[in-house]
């Protein structure tokens, strides 16, 4: 079995990666890193390069883990993550969430909601700022 992590070059993405690495070590499972563009095209944001992802993995200390990379090839992030989950027979998906206002906390993002409701495996949602926790 494999743990899938949705990675973006953000505080949320790094928190999710750290949590996924801890889970993979505890369960002795592989780690599949799904990376993709985030934000609107107008924001000038781009998907991280494979080199960026490998740098984040080195920082997360994945030595000894079986790691595979999966770059977004579909326009819908939710569909992409569900496809990766299916492809690797994931036992867990780890996603990072942004902190929001008290009212905003009631509103899970569209892609996250789609994945949480559609995933055939448990989903661990990690808040930013928790990188160093346990």
UniProtKB/TrEMBL annotation:
Domain UspA: from-to ranges: 2-127
Listed SUPFAM superfamilies: Adenine nucleotide alpha hydrolases-like
Superkingdom of the source species: Bacteria
CDD domains hit by this protein: USP-like
Cited Pfam families: Usp
InterPro entries documented for this protein: Rossmann-like_a/b/a_fold (IPR014729), Universal_stress_UspA (IPR006015), UspA (IPR006016)
Similarity section: Belongs to the universal stress protein A family.
Protein name: Universal stress protein UspA
Classification lineage: Bacteria, Bacillati, Actinomycetota, Actinomycetes, Micrococcales
